[in-house]
Specification:
Elements: E1 12-17, H1 28-39, E2 43-48, H2 54-68, E3 71-76, H3 78-88, E4 94-99, H4 105-109, H5 116-125, E5 128-131, E6 134-136, E7 139-141, E8 144-148, H6 149-164, H7 168-180, E9 186-192, E10 195-201, E11 203-207, H8 210-216, H9 221-225, E12 229-234, H10 239-250, E13 260-265, E14 267-273, E15 279-284, E16 287-292, E17 295-299, E18 304-307, H11 314-326
Parallel strand pairs: 1-2, 1-3, 3-4
Antiparallel strand pairs: 5-18, 6-7, 6-17, 8-11, 8-15, 9-10, 9-14, 11-12, 12-13, 14-17, 15-16
């Protein structure tokens, strides 16, 4: 579909998840209305009280935005942003983000402030730039997609969040608990152009976020900037070695671990031997769903037209500087 022109007076169609980390408590709706009123811009709000209604609400916001040549905005964490981006991709609409989650990797890697007032300023003043989208079997991921242990840890984390609240400490504690409980290795076959192989691994992780790669110390950030995805696999290891790898990632030293295999690609096909089952749990930006094998990971043919400041974000520049200093 032909992209909408970059109108400076375009109305905003804002989907905000009341269940996201800071969505309801900080009054996203009134803040958006006040900022738009001050800027002489029209806005329409689409609050979502139940997670099951998010996708339908996002599609309705896109439909309304297309009719008005407007901008679709996602306010929430990476999972909410993912769901709205899924509806926006290929629609011709521009996309905006008001980050309200725990990690906010997508917003931070593109220089969008986590402070609501600053994020609104970017949304109302900056232009749209194309940003890369990853897909697995047609499902969008902006940050990462995974299967195996990493996907299981994300599923376990949701239970911990409901019990203890949303924070990075809760996420870390949940991950440690998942590792200590033990895990099975996946038996998978993978195919890249001109190369096929089989492997046993506790997890397959596919990254589409350069900041996340930089923070754990993997060199694929440059590959993501160049239009590829980052694949990460672990050799079969015990739980104590896994905890050591978790610590290395926290200190940005994962590339130094012999147990970690990492590579860059544009398209990867994966099949998993799962006792005759043809479906497997896959996490995309923290949301776990069942998918039918084989799994096809690839860069989406269309980019997302994201409203963002130009150039690298301050966090990306700092991470690159640290990487170059340590090289």
């Amino acid at each position: 579909m032909t992209p909408e022109p970059d109108r400076r007076d375009a109305p905003l169609f804002v989907v905000f998840n009341l269940a996201s980390g800071r969505g309801a408590r900080e009054g996203v709706g009134p803040a958006v209305e006040a900022a738009c009123r001050a800027a002489g811009r029209r806005c329409e709000l689409f609050p979502v009280a139940q997670a099951g209604a998010l996708s339908d609400t996002a599609r309705e916001a896109v439909r309304r935005a297309q009719a008005a040549q407007g901008i679709v905005v996602a306010a929430g964490g990476d999972g909410t942003i993912n769901a709205v981006a899924q509806a926006v991709l290929g629609s011709g609409c521009r996309f905006g983000v008001l980050p309200r989650g725990t990690f906010n990797y997508f917003a931070r890697t593109h220089g969008i402030p986590v402070e609501l007032d600053e994020a609104l300023r970017v949304l109302l003043q900056e232009a749209a730039e194309p940003v890369q989208v990853g897909q697995v079997n047609g499902r969008v991921f902006l940050v990462n997609a995974s299967l195996g242990l990493y996907a299981q840890s994300l599923e376990d984390r949701e239970g911990w969040k409901q019990q203890f609240g949303r924070s990075r400490l809760v996420a870390l504690a949940s991950g440690v608990r998942t590792i200590l409980r033990g895990h099975r290795s996946l038996r998978l076959s993978a195919e890249l152009p001109g190369r096929q192989w089989t492997a046993r691994t506790p997890t397959l992780f596919v990254g589409n976020n350069a900041l996340q790669m930089e923070q754990v110390g993997l060199p694929q950030a440059a590959a993501i900037d160049a239009g590829r995805l980052a694949g990460v696999m672990l050799k079969p290891v015990g739980r104590w070695t896994m905890l050591t790898l978790l610590a290395r990632g926290a200190f940005g030293q994962l590339s130094e671990a012999d147990e970690v295999l990492h590579f860059a690609f544009e398209g990867l096909t994966v099949d998993v031997r799962a006792g005759g089952r043809r479906r497997i749990k896959v996490a995309t930006d923290g949301e776990v769903v069942l998918m039918t094998m084989p799994l096809r990971f690839e860069v989406a043919p269309q980019a997302l037209r994201l409203i963002r400041p130009p150039g690298l974000s301050p966090e990306r520049r700092a991470a690159q500087g640290q990487a170059e200093a340590g090289a």
